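Hey, weird one. I pasted the Phospholipid/glycerol acyltransferase domain-containing protein sequence into the form twice and got a warning about non-standard characters only the second time. First submission, copied straight from the form history:
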Amino acid sequence: METELKDLKSQPSQQPPPPLQPTVTNDDVPLLKNSETHHSRNSSNSNSNVSGDNLDELEKKFAAYVRHDVYGTMGRGELPLGEKFLLGIALVTLVPVRVVLATTLLVLYYLICRICTLFSAPNREEEEEEDGQEDYAHMGGWKRTVIVQCGRSLSRAMLFVFGFYWIKETYRIPDSTAQRKEESEEPERPGAIISNHVSYLDILYHMHSSFPSFVAKRSVGKLPLVGIISKCLGCVYVQRESKSSDFKGVSGVVTERVREAYQNKSAPMMMLFPEGTTTNGDYLLPFKTGAFLSTVPVRPVILRYPYRRFSPAWDSISGVRHVIYLLCQFVNHLEVVRLPIYCPSQQEKDDPKLYASNVRRLMASEGNLIMSDIGLPEKRVYHAALNGNNSLPSVLHRKDD
């Protein structure tokens, strides 16, 4: 699930070049072969290395989305014989068991959410029933307690099924005397959790940890099983491609939710991924300022997925291929660093861009992450090039300025 909040208060930034559309979408097509085969009739020798050279240049320009695991770029690399053997064994033994268990957990939680909301009306943010925001996160009483506690427990169980048997969590405590003196003035909880975005698995961890509300594509609310669960989480739905005033309304809803969570302990907390897309886990992209417009304190959380064979990062690999490889890996690892609540200064409150930038720098420093200046448009260009777009030279030089 990718999320993206755009800066609505600042002036519109310069529009990036429109992303190139891949000429071939088949997941089994060899990488960067179109350019090579297109020119092979003119000069087979001069183009013998074009694929490798272009791939190297792409990986330098779009390093935040490059996979470095055994499975290679987009998960289509040539596997060693031993890896093929392990993959084959897992496909017929481990994967079926995990699919059955994961499906059972999903259906179970769906039934719990359906029963608890059976005679309850959803909270609505707008008048329109079809396009308006609606959720069950503001529902109180024992029903809300059941939804939250079961959601947290079953999310951890789902991670266990996916091979995350242990999760290493580190809590950073402020060291300075000044911070200790102000500890009594620090709010009991922040208005929002700010996290880097590496995989759809991030959502399962945060559901287990704090059961917050997310920003999700509007289509998620209409999905079977998952739709009712997202409403119980209190997700704020957004139409990613929308250029209308609807996007402004969503940003307003998020800002109100963040402030509400800060002021009211019983209100659902917001979980925001200000990068707007996933990376390979080694980089931190620029933050959208929409997550900081409320100017209330936030809790930075850093996620890392150490690996040896397959990387759980959802960077440049198809969803189906990623799920299959993930289920085939017996053990997966997740490390979490939870930073102290970040209270903005008056200068940061007056300038959300500065607030976002300072939180990003702190997370990059504490998580040993490399800050990159690329974003979602560049990710689309990278994917288009990997899928064999014939305009590859223009793609490669588009970032030179």
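That's the output from the first submission. The warning seems to come from a hidden character in my clipboard, not from the data itself. The chain has 14 helices and eleven strands.
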